[in-house]
């Protein structure tokens, strides 16, 4: 059985299609959004009376990196299952790489752990998914409404805020080491990575 070889981190704005592109690579996928902190965590950042869920401080980066390390060390790990509508972890599940030498870890905060994954020799690649802002806005709103993540007026207001912030979000992710790329480019790059690994064995 092949030993795990590295993680491909996939960042990008909310609604940009990270989960879809991650699945399209054909690799096992770790959802980094499942590492949000619970809603009663006193360390959560706030804007006035509301939790700022768009801040990296609302997310447990250390736990995400340790889970990635466990996956690369053992080929499997127990990972959290987070219910965004309830603002808490509701379960765990076993993620098994089934011998795959690579896997994708995707989420809006993926770029926050690029440097730490590189430092620990876990990183195989890092990308920030780019898509037109209008498409991202509509995809995000449709998804959040369908999943009943929050009240519709809250989702619409948040969607407009994220639409305006998107260039800055991508700029930060690129500065943290995630290369901006379209979905097709990410899929091609990951395919080349896995093909190159297979050719070298």
Please, could you describe this protein's structure?
This protein is α/β, with parallel strands linked by helices. It has a single domain, classed as 3-Layer(aba) Sandwich (Rossmann fold), CATH 3.40.50. It is built from six helices and nine strands. Strand 3 (46-47) and strand 4 (50-51) form a beta hairpin. Helix 1 runs parallel beside helix 6 and helix 4 packs across helix 5. The N and C termini lie close together (12 Å).
Q: What is the CATH first-level class name?
A: Alpha Beta
Name of the CATH homologous superfamily: P-loop containing nucleotide triphosphate hydrolases
General form = globular
- Strand order of the main beta sheet, please? 2-7-1-8-9
- Total number of distinct structural domains: 1
Report helical residue fraction: 40-55%
Order of helices and strands: EHEEEHEEEHEHHEH
C-alpha termini separation: 12 Å
The major sheet is characterized as: 5 strands, parallel
The beta-strand count equals 9
The class by helix and strand makeup works out as alpha/beta
Mean pLDDT: 88
CATH architecture: 3-Layer(aba) Sandwich
List keywords for this structure.
201 residues, Rossmann fold, two-stranded antiparallel ribbon, 6 helices
In short:
With 201 residues, the chain is an alpha/beta fold. Helix content is 41%, strand content 22%.
